[in-house]
Amino acid sequence: MLSYIIQGVTYGFAAAVQPGPLQAYIILQALKNGWRRSIVYALVPLLSDLPIIALVVTVLAFLPAGWVIVLRLAGGVFLIYLAVGAFRTALHPAEETASPEGSPQRGLLPAVAINLLNPNPYLFWSLVAGPILLTGWKESPVFAVAMLAAFYLVMIIVCAVIILVVSIAHRFNPRLRQWLMIASAIGLGIFGAYQLWMGITGKV
User: Fold this and answer.
1) Which tens digit of pLDDT belongs to each residue from 92-110?
2) Phi, psi of 202 (to 5 degrees)
3) The predicted structure's pLDDT at residue 98
4) Cα 84 from chain centroid?
5) Whether the Cβ atoms of residue 187 and residue 180 lie closer than 8 Å to each other
6) What is the C-alpha separation between 124 and 15, in angstroms, rounded?
7) What span, in angstroms and rounded, lies between the C-alpha atoms of 12 and 3?
8) Would you state the torsion angle of the CA atoms of residues 151, 156, 158, 163, taken in this order, to the nearest 10 degrees?
9) Domain that holds residue 135
């Protein structure tokens, strides 16, 4: 069982620190709302990955390769939409303060949607973690549960640390918040454009 726990910890840490659209969005929310209202975003990978894992271990193997292209196109459009909104927030922070859109409840749905429309979790669980999970389940269901628990425990903790660090760091420089928000918006836009390009060119 120890080997499965170690793999869960390793993959969980790598997934949490790897730059991606979800990380950019979480950082943006931390800058907008502060760590107290944004700490809940550390749970987004758990909320969004559970249906992905269920899909992967049941029917994903029977789906055509084109599903990745559809996800890339839909995800690219959604990320660019979020990037535009992030730029508006960075350039007009006063308007965002007066808006109710910054509530964690309303921000959780886009965060979950980002992961559901991102092919990477599907590829990760189907090509990397999924086979390990199934192998562990065949040996003992406890091994598979231990791996999942280790994976998400580490990922949630690391995401929470990122939220705390970003929320506290920008207070040392009032302009840092705006620049970090712009950087997050640029990151979302780049990831969105990349997803669109991969989808349009038909690359999986």
Assistant:
1) 654 444 344 445 556 678 8
2) 75, 20
3) 38
4) 18
5) no
6) 10
7) 14
8) 160
9) 2-200
Q: What total of structural domains would you count in the chain?
A: 1
Q: pLDDT digits over 130-189, tens only? A: 777 878 888 898 999 999 999 999 999 988 988 898 888 767 666 666 677 777 778 778
Whole-structure pTM over 0.85, yes or no?
Answer: no
For residues 99 and 45, give the distance between their C-alpha atoms in angstroms, rounded to a whole number: 26
- For the chain, what percent of residues have pLDDT higher than 70? 80
pLDDT band, residue 203 (cuts 50/70/90): low
SS3 for the chain, per residue?
CHHHHHHHHHHHHHHHHCCCHHHHHHHHHHHHHHHHHHHHHHHHHHHHHHHHHHHHCCCHHHCCCHHHHHHHHHHHHHHHHHHHHHHHHHHCHHHHHCCHHHCHHHHHHHHHHHHHCCHHHHHHHHHHHHHHHHHHHHHCHHHHHHHHHHHHHHHHHHHHHHHHHHHHHHHHCHHHHHHHHHHHHHHHHHHHHHHHHHHHCCCC
Residue 85, CB-side half-sphere exposure with 13 Å CA sphere: 16
Rounded Cα gap, residues 156 and 40, in angstroms: 10
